[in-house]
Amino acid sequence: MARVSPAFRPSLLAGGSHEAGWYAAGSTQRGVILTGTAPRTCPISLRFPAESSWSKLCIRVFPYVANWDFEVSANPDALGAGTMNVVPGLVQNSTGRCATAILAGGLGTRLAAAGLDQPKVLAPVAERPFLSWILDWLGHLGLRRVVLCTGYRASDVRRALGDRCGEIELLHSPEPAPLGTGGALRHALPHLAAGPVLVLNGDSFCPLDLDAFERAHLLRPAHATIAVSAVPDARASGSVALGRDDRVVGFREKDPAGGAGLANAGVYLIERTLIERIPADRPVSLERELLPAWLARYPVFAFRSGAAFHDIGTPERWAAAGSFIGKLTVGGLA
Predict the structure, then answer these.
(1) Of 32, 177, 188, 329, which is most buried by a Cβ count within 10 Å?
(2) Any residues with CB less than 8 A from the CB of 102 and at least 6 apart, and which?
(3) pTM of the entire structure?
(4) Of all helices (H) and strands (E), which one includes residue 274?
(5) CA 271, CA 297: separation in Å to the nearest integer?
(6) Distance between CA atoms of 40 and 42, rounded to whole angstroms?
(7) pLDDT, tens digit, for every residue of 232-278?
(8) Helix 154-161 crosses helix 130-140 at what angle (to 10 degrees)?
């Protein structure tokens, strides 16, 4: 048994109701280690399989804790000789949020026909670049560092948004050549910390419950989790097919017959170890190539967001985006 004693800052945890989970870096083994009301200090005992040989253990506490310390002693029979190196592997932002990347390299070919002469993520919506609304929401949730995976006219994105948006530091990761959404994410790997990475499409907006999304990913053996939203007509979006325990079993292409379905909302949690396996020597699409291929090899789950989402992929949906933003009350956006 390894005994992990996190000395949580009392002002953050004392007397509150919290939930904690663990996972081993590079492994899908994970579990709940604490549920309920935490005292001022919170000793946590973890029991691991005898064959485990992990070098890192990642602890996650909900709600988020900004400052913590770990003291670890390990049973050599269970974990090998020496001191176990315990790191907050999900922590990238100062508030405890995980690393975040926004796919912001789209050309906006269809929007150009409607007069757009700039990258799609900069399309004006309610008198501001569309991407700035997403960043406002993320900032309200406590994120303080976001990687922008840029491509087409990357310098325009940097010029428009700069290196900060409110409290968020923006790290620009421009493609050296067109790499596709998956390739752009792989190219940004040096900016992404260990643990799951929050990945968002920069041309769609789904203001989901991020706490619940991260909790659902952590407490299941997921290599990736896809946020899905219920839509009354999946003709334009296609749909995600789910199996037992909401494991993703397939993707249905856009069906002219229509009908209700669960649409990919363009928000993902993807383990960094999976991003490392994306080919680095050719363009690759996250949606069309990687996700379908991963289903056969890795556990990929869906998270039913319960939130509406809106994309600006066509002139009609771009024109309607202002109304969508105007109705939002999430994150102080309206």
Answers:
(1) 188
(2) 121, 131, 134, 146, 147, 148, 149, 199, 200, 201, 202
(3) 0.77
(4) helix 272-275
(5) 14
(6) 7
(7) 988 888 899 999 999 999 998 776 767 899 999 999 999 888 999 99
(8) 50
